[in-house]
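Long-time lurker. I teach an intro course on protein structure, and each term I like to show students one example going from raw sequence to a predicted 3D structure in token notation. This year I'd like something fresh instead of my usual example. Would anyone be willing to generate the tokens for the chain below so I can use it in lecture? Attribution to the forum is fine with me.
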Amino acid sequence: MENKGISQAVIGRLPRYFRYLGELKDQGIERVSSQELSDIMKVTASQIRQDFNNFGGFGQQGYGYKVEYLYGEIGKILGLDQTHNLIIIGAGNLGQALANYMNFERRGFLFRGIFDNNPALYGRRIRDMEVLPMKELSSFVRENAIDIAVLTIPKNCAVEVAEELVKEGIRGIWNFAHVDLNVPPDVQVENVHLSDSLMKLTYNINRYETHYDA
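-- Reply from a regular --
Happy to contribute to a lecture. Here you go:
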């Protein structure tokens, strides 16, 4: 499917559609209208139809969408019909928390290993995986067909580590380090800045209070 002209805003909504449709499916609901999805997601019904039309549309006018079918199709668009081998680089608190997140496997993300440069952590077991030294990173990525790396390391070493990963053929980086990574166009990077999300929350708190105090 050709997706080059699809905006990041649309792509950003796809995981939400997938999540809510999964909940409907688990509840045994077989069919849903764009208006019903709108009520659940707080996105306009028109926007939902426009989003789905980017991928050819999935419903019939006056009939709505088959929940299980739509859930499966969005999963395919997101690449969740395939498995992805994933490693975590950085075995600190955040790295360990992500490693212990059990939902990865449900979505096809297979946790294969965790790395750190702190000798005190070597051999510690996290989710039945031993923490490995960074010197083993390159060979591990090659030998285990790793396609996604999660960076939970300080920004002063993230750039160098990313360059090493790119050389070994990594396809995607989930970047929690507070630094922009300069990678080739065929390597996808998703930056996660937790403080940005928190600041967005405080902005909305302040905006709400200002609105209702006026």
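Some talking points for your students: The first helix runs from residue 8 to 26. Residues 84-195 form a domain with the Rossmann fold fold (CATH 3.40.50.720).
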